Amino acid sequence: MPAAGQLRDDALPDHAGRAKDKDLHGVNSIRWILVTSSCYKYLVDTGDVFDPQCPTRVVLDRIGDKWSMLVLLSLRDGPMRFTQLRTRIGGVTPKVLTQTLRAMEQDGLLTREVFAEVPPRVEYTLTDLGRSLHGPLSVVAEWAERHVSEILRRREKFS
């Protein structure tokens, strides 16, 4: 019989079916709970985008959002103020831009810095995590710019 806080070796499979560490209070046991549970309220080392219960879907929603992508691309050259961002992006309402910036700040993709000036000045800057998206999003943006004509022509065929 296992001691309290422990399970049998064979009761803690990892992704390859191998036995895991028996300590239920350690990182491996948290990973085991995540692998065997649909509750993802804990920190996950890596995700599975094809698992409908995996929180990576939330990440994809964030970085796949048109406004988030445009904010990330706009901030790649350095800090910007709200009005500068809104002008650079174009077509976004103040309410939607505010919601997008708040969500991105909560996700750790950018920081919001308020300066004690009159009038108050607020600047948005990418974090290291946000900057890490520069390469992949730039490739997507370049692809979109290169193929927009072809996609629009094909859409017209269905109209």
Task: Walk me through what this model shows.
The chain has 159 residues and is mainly α. The chain is built from 7 helices and 3 strands; from the N terminus they run αααβααββαα. The chain has a 3-stranded antiparallel beta sheet. It is globular and about 55 Å long. Helices cover 49% and strands 9% of the residues. The N terminus is likely disordered.
Structural key phrases:
9% strand; mainly alpha; single chain; three-stranded antiparallel beta sheet; 7 helices; disordered N terminus; 159 residues
On the 0 to 100 scale, the average pLDDT is 80
Give the neighbour order of strands across the main sheet. Answer: 1-3-2
Structural class: mainly alpha
User: Rg, please?
Assistant: 22 Å
How is the main sheet built?
3 strands, antiparallel
Shape: globular
Name the helix and strand elements from N-terminus to C-terminus, one letter apiece.
Answer: HHHEHHEEHH
Residues in β-strands, percent: 5-15%
Distance between the termini: 69 Å
Number of helices: 7
Helix % is: 40-55%
Number of strands: 3
Instruction: Provide the low-confidence segments as ranges.
Output: 1-34, 36-42
